[in-house]
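User: structure tokens for this one?
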Amino acid sequence: MKSKITQALVERSPAPERGRSALYADTEMRGFYLIVTPTKRSFYVQSLVNGKQVRTKLGDHPAMDAKQARDAARTTLVGMRGGTNPNEERRRARARGITLREALELHLAAKRLADRTKDGYRYNLEQYVADWLDRPLAELGADRAAARERHRRITEKHGAPSADNVFRIFRAVYNRGLREHPELPPNPCGNVDYHGLRRRKVDANGNKLRAWGEAVLRLHPVRRDLHLFMMMTGMRRGAACEARAADLDLTSKLLHVPKPKGGSSRAFDLPLSGPLADLFGHRLKENPRVQRGAQWLFPADSESGHVAEVAQHELDGLTGHALRHTFATLAVQAGVPLLELKYLLNHAASNVTMGYIHVGPEHLRKHQETASRYILEQLGLEHEPGRWPPRLKE
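Assistant:
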């Protein structure tokens, strides 16, 4: 309906029924409107902008009254008839204002990431580019030389792996901001010279493995069993240290891993070989804290209550992720097929065909048995079924 938009009209126009709205077109200024809904009274303008009808909101009552709305409408309509789209201008303003910190939260909210991964993203940006966090992405994107220079400085001070890792995270976060605001400058990481580090090669020859097997038996029983568990499964450090008694089913010989790398969507059941089942059976019997209901299978007097740091100088560097490399190598040498090895390692599907295949733990257990027997043999250890720990071969 048509009516001059006055303060009296704004305040006294009846609210429509739920789900409906009433539109008032101003009789004195073409393109100026009041829209009344059951919960709001809002001012709008509409006009042709470069041949296209564009409607934009000016504001809501009571934050904006009728006189303020009329003044804003007059100015906005002049700009629109001159070719300025206020909606696009607002989008550009938001793009200019979004900060790296805001883009990080946008990226983390959009991804199904484990809490540990999210903490890693935040740590890397807060540790190495803290002064960038509250700067607009538009500024960071416009200074491509600064991105290259910061990568170089991190390389000199903290090493090439840290520099590449920080800027891979920065690149992903900036790209998420760019998807939200296409008006931003291109990603400045295009001007970063990554080192392109290759996956490290783990040296685990026969002599080193036998020395490792002898050294691991001399460790504290909890740490001994943790390292042997990681050696015989290739389990990542975080998932191994956080293994819980509640997720262990010795009857079915399974360990449920609820939060591996990739988060809960990548949860899986790890089949246990005979030696692995004996390892966990021994853990339950030996550790009274577990018997009393403590959740961790590898407990420690730490803030978290479980072993958190796996570095062990007695093991000559063959700890942590190096054990994952070693397990994969030895499992292949033992004859475990690559497809089954991928499932034992819980690697994501690398192609369409693998995505169609769903292999159960019973099928995988025989390959886990093969790997465990071979690995213990290479370590120079002898396992007697039903007993733990293994002993050195004579």
